[in-house]
Amino acid sequence: MTGGTANGTAGGAVGGPVVLPARLIVAVAWLREHYAGPVSVADMAAGVGCGVGELSALTVRYLGCTPAGVLRAARLERARLMLLAAAPARGAVRRVAWSVGYRDLRRFRTEYRERFGELPSRTLREGTTGPIRPGAGGGGNG
After folding, report:
1. Is the pLDDT of residue 40 over 50?
2. pLDDT at 2 over 90
3. Radius of gyration of the chain (CA)
4. Which terminus of the chain, N or C, has fewer Cβ atoms within 10 Å?
5. Of 97, 105, 103, which is closest to residue 76 (Cα–Cα)?
6. What pTM does this model have?
7. Average pLDDT, stretch 2-10?
8. Residue 50 to residues 19, 45, 76, 104, 117: CA-CA distances in angstroms?
9. Backbone angles phi, psi at 10, to 5 degrees
10. Taking 80 as the threshold, does the pLDDT of residue 65 lie above it?
11. Where are the beta strands (DSSP E) in 1-142?
12. What mean pLDDT, rounded, does the chain reach?
């Protein structure tokens, strides 16, 4: 994910950590349980018990991206962990993409490469853990 930690803080500017609002912590926890399914922003908001506007405002303010960007980051980060742990095999990238909620393999490859600077097949094949490209993946209007 971009931003917050398990203890409900995000890196602050000059003053140190920023405490995240309870609704945002619940939203991130909800997302970690439901990321693999066909999740919309409205589903996320309903699962947390708030409106789409409130959820959007919270994620933009505290995580620096839209709710869809938070979902994308969760899916891609889980996919990377799965690829790093998997044995190279035919169809492995497709299975990982599907298991984290991507139904379009081309889109998965493109977004994965934008976020991690390499194709998922390379991560699978070489088990690389290269640096995440600065500013990649989490933000945007999606």
Report:
1. yes
2. no
3. 15
4. C
5. 97
6. 0.76
7. 48
8. 19, 5, 25, 30, 35
9. -130, 155
10. yes
11. 9-10, 18-19
12. 84
